[in-house]
């Protein structure tokens, strides 16, 4: 339940501008997730969410590592099309990609500086990502899927 809730929190923050815990609680409830403010506060701390300046002069929550790794629109489309599947095994995330694309995908992940990733290894059509904690690989897979869909 906790992992599902935290993944949902990250997805909501990726989709919409959330500036307060009250707004996030309301968004979670709209998604069918009833959570207390105390639990939400712990989740925000565990996810290391922070507030960043928004374009309108206000503030919004942001997930560390969500910053754009500086890809051009063309590179973004290529990466999106290259990823075929993401499979989680313990603290490992295995990403299957089109042949010859593993280095490009691993480079994209490395340039994003996700704090929960220890490192990545690229072959020809597979990227192995080592995540700091068991359970973190599931969150990382969900986060990458969200990023890939947004591109």
Description:
- With 151 residues, the protein is of the alpha+beta class.
- It has 2 domains: 2-62, Arc Repressor Mutant, subunit A (Orthogonal Bundle); 73-150, Gyrase A, domain 2 (2-Layer Sandwich), CATH 3.30.1360.40.
- 46% of the residues lie in helices and 22% in strands.
- The protein is built from 6 helices and 6 strands; from the N terminus they run H-H-H-E-E-H-E-E-H-E-E-H.
- It has helices at residues 2-15, 21-30, 37-46, 73-82, 102-112, 136-150, and strands at residues 50-53, 59-62, 83-89, 92-97, 117-122, 126-131.
- The strands form 2 sheets. A 4-stranded antiparallel beta sheet has the order 3-4-6-5. It has a two-stranded antiparallel ribbon with strand order 1-2.
- Strand 5 (117-122) and strand 6 (126-131) form a beta hairpin.
- Helix 1 (2-15) runs parallel beside helix 6.
- It is globular, with a radius of gyration of 16 Å.
- The chain starts with a helix and ends with a helix.
- The model has no long low-confidence stretch (mean pLDDT 84).
Helix/strand layout:
Layout: H1 2-15, H2 21-30, H3 37-46, E1 50-53, E2 59-62, H4 73-82, E3 83-89, E4 92-97, H5 102-112, E5 117-122, E6 126-131, H6 136-150
Antiparallel strand pairs: 1-2, 3-4, 4-6, 5-6
Helix pairs in contact: 1-6
Provide a concise account of the structure shown.
This protein is α+β, with helices and mostly antiparallel strands and 151 residues long. The protein has helices at 2-15, 21-30, 37-46, 73-82, 102-112, 136-150, and strands at residues 50-53, 59-62, 83-89, 92-97, 117-122, 126-131.
């Amino acid at each position: 339940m906790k992992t599902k809730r935290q993944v949902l929190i990250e997805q909501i923050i990726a989709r919409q501008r959330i500036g307060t815990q009250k707004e996030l609680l309301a968004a979670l409830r709209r998604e069918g997730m009833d959570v207390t403010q105390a639990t939400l506060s712990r989740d925000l701390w565990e996810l290391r969410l922070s507030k960043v300046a928004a374009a309108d002069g206000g503030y919004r929550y942001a997930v560390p590592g969500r910053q754009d790794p500086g890809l051009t629109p063309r590179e973004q489309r290529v990466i999106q099309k290259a990823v075929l599947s993401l499979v989680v095994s313990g603290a490992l995330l295995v990403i299957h990609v089109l042949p010859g694309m593993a280095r490009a995908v691993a480079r994209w992940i490395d340039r994003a500086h996700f704090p929960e990733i220890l490192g990545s290894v690229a072959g020809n059509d597979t990227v192995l990502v080592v995540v700091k904690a068991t359970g973190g690989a599931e969150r990382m897979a969900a986060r990458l899927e969200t990023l890939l869909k947004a591109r």
